[in-house]
Amino acid sequence: MAIPLMRTSPWIEVRNSKIHGKGVFAAKRIPKGTRIIEYIGERISHKEADDRYADHDPNDNHTFLFIVDRKTVIDGGRKANAARYINHSCNGNCESAIAERRVFIDAVRDIAKGEELGYDYEIGRDKNDPPNVDEIYACRCGSPKCRGTMLWPAKRPVKKKKAKKKVAAKTAVKKTSKKTKVSKKKKGKRVASRR
Ligand SMILES: [Zn+2]
């Protein structure tokens, strides 16, 4: 049985965010594990996405493309819903999940009313990235665990050796936890618009 379309959500409201442009906030307390909303937009091929945003200003970090798999990208700039306004966070209260070749945003912990939703975009690095790519995709999520960039992996080790170790451990955990769900390459990568 197909998962019903989740175009709107009673859990959220969109308003201005301190992090970045518009954001999505909990309209009421959201229990851990809640499937909050579906990430909806026009489903296109990778090539279409590349062509569509070929003229995109490389210094603009607005990106609404979401990779579903090798074939499909969801363009949250067209035929979209509020999910596209959920900002990146290095230590988010949400995560993206792919099911039935669709993308959903799930709560990974209890979220208080009024809290801004966020998940890790894990934007993949690309050999064609401009040298200032970390500036363009600088993260200001405000989390104590902020790695300073929306890109993954963090190219530059964060601060001291200790921090480096922590990052490595986190990566290992992530890898195993993802295997069951979705490979790293698929997840949350919003890359095409900066080519
Ligand atoms: Zn951050």
- Gyration radius, in Å: 16 Å
Q: What's the N-to-C terminus distance?
A: 38 Å
Q: Give me the secondary-structure category.
A: alpha+beta
Runs in which pLDDT lies below 50 for 5 or more consecutive residues are 156-187, 191-195
The helix fraction, in percent, is 10-25%
According to CATH, what is the topology? Answer: Beta-clip-like
Quickly count the domains: 1
User: How many alpha or pi helices?
Assistant: 3
CATH architecture: Beta Complex
Instruction: Give the overall pLDDT as a whole number.
Output: 82
Sequence of strands across the biggest β-sheet: 3-9-8
Would you report the number of β strands?
A: 12
CATH class: Mainly Beta
Beta-strand portion reads 15-25%
The distinct ligands, each listed once, are: zinc ion
Overall body shape: globular
Main beta sheet strand tally, sense and closure: 3 strands, antiparallel
Helix-strand topology string: EEEEHEEEEEEEHEH
The CATH superfamily is known as SET domain
Report on the architecture of this protein.
It contains three helices and twelve strands; from the N terminus they run ββββαβββββββαβα. It is α+β, with helices and mostly antiparallel strands and 195 residues long. Residues 156-187 and 191-195 have low confidence and may be disordered. The chain has helices at 46-52, 133-136, 161-179, and strands at residues 12-16, 22-26, 35-39, 42-45, 65-67, 72-75, 87-88, 94-99, 102-107, 118-119, 123-124, 151-152. The longest helix is centred in the C-terminal third of the chain and has 19 residues, at 161-179. It has a single domain (12-194), classed as SET domain (Beta-clip-like, Beta Complex), CATH 2.170.270.10. β5 (65-67) and β6 (72-75) form a beta hairpin. It has a three-stranded antiparallel sheet, with no helix packed on it. It has a three-stranded antiparallel sheet with strand order 4-6-5. The radius of gyration is 16 Å and the shape is globular. Helix content is 15%, strand content 24%. The protein binds zinc ion. The site of zinc ion has 6 residues, from loops.
